[in-house]
Records
---
Amino acid sequence: MELFRILATFLVLIAHLNGWMAGGLVDWNAANISTFHKASQLILQSLSIVCVNCFLIISGWYGLKLKFTSIWKIWILLFSIYVPFYLLDCFLGSADFSPVTLVKKILAFPCESYFVQNYLMLLFISPVLNAFIEKDKSHLTVFAITLFAIEVIMESVFQNKCLYIENGYSLFHFVTMYMLARTASMHKEKVLSVKKQWWILGYFLCAALLCLLYFTPYKYTWAYSNPIVVIESFMLFFPFVYKTFYSKLINWVARGAFAVYIIQVTPPVFGQLVSLNQYVLGHFSYYAYLIFLLLFSIAFFSLCLIYNEIMQKLITPILKPLGNKMEVLLSKFV
């Protein structure tokens, strides 16, 4: 699973650099862009769009538990990224220093970050979801599939806005993915009864369907809530369930995976990534860009891991006593 977590993080980088940070997919009808460029970008996006769903599947497969230590670890990670990078942004002149903004960065959770905030809310409501799952396992499958059907019908068919499914950038989608993954975990034996090759084939077939869907009027092709993307995410996940092994290196890399996710969307890193990515894309052939995409993603991933390791060793010893005191204090009330 830790290996899968690393893969999911790497796919986040590919999906962002290849799509969002590149200004989106190129116009297929543009005569000045090669077919290889158009097709390669489309295929890469169809294979990597599962990235965020993968994290949610891991959480659902094992189940979340609301613990102060979990929230505290997330806060320390965010604090170690938001505050130094905000001060760097001010030093570079890209942002104006504000005491209010600094306090916001220190608190971390108020900062706009859809994944962090939705995941935190999922963590808070997980006791309720888990209580339902434990009490009524016989109806879990029907409930999870019904929730998934509501998401698909209300957004993809009727384009309903009031449920705020928002292409999967919402708590609604996080809950749906969590319940689907809990259901899949409950049926682990059935998953394992299928040869893993079929799941891998299913993953590539879903990616192919996304490529075809791109040429239709359907407006949610690259949404995390797209039903094909959801199914594709599980198809990629299931092959990693078959074998368990232990690796200190993989576990260490996986511990820093979330830091990689956060750093790449944090100013001023995000702006620099966009500029560099678009420069390479605009001044070199797409063949060269693909090599850059691979090598740069590996290098950036590595640098983020090193940064996270250094910051954790510097900050954790200082904040650990405070965290222990707060945990003792909260335990008296909870």
---
Amino acid sequence: MTDNLKTRCEKSFYSELYHFEETSQGLLIDNTTGRIYLKKILETYDINVYEWLKGHSDPHIPRVHSFWEEDGRLVVLEEYIQGETLEEKLSKGLSDKSEKLRIIMEVCDALSFLHNAPIPIIHRDIKASNIMLTNDGVVKLIDYDAAKTFHAGKKSDTALIGTVGSAAPEQYGFRQSDARTDIYSLGILIKELFPDDKRFAKIINKATQMEPGFRYQNTQELKRALTDAAGISKKKSHIWIVVIICTIAYMAIAGIIVVLLLRHFTNVTK
């Protein structure tokens, strides 16, 4: 079966449920399975990104179900996520710092998944409106319209894409985007979530350096820095210390009880 015939056959499986006028996206139902997918039509895209995402999944990345090229554009069917964007949450007054930190940590996990692909995938548009929180509270990094694969040796990006204010300097044509490009944008997001929190001031400063070599080199480094600044590791170590002390105390008490019981029974037998 040729690719065109295969695509025409697959397209016949779907029926449109809803069309979002403001985004030109829609909801489709697979008549063979009853599953609902989000349909996106992309003018600018890197097909290699969608080829890899279709074959690999992560809890923090929308699953790509299918895609095909049509009239010079890419039609993508992906997991339909029910929830709200981080931007919407913030507009409603999200103030819980621990929840904000959890979201950032899970975005780091999503980026680690992308950056550690055999050919690293760079999102290039990290911002609050591209982060979804499902109704179950799971963080999802969405919208891969600007995403590209990283190719060693290239001096700059062929397409200059990103959001003004959060895009890294290299996205304006100075050099090729890489994992540190997403770290820059993530630093801007951390600043937005924690504008007056001195714990993260140095982290924000390092993440948003103009020169990529001076930033965190990967999301694992950034995540460790956030963990240390928030005192999460210290809290965990304190908990373990308490657990160890309590365990030793219980063992000592149990030992004393055993000794007393042995003496008691020894005296009785005499």
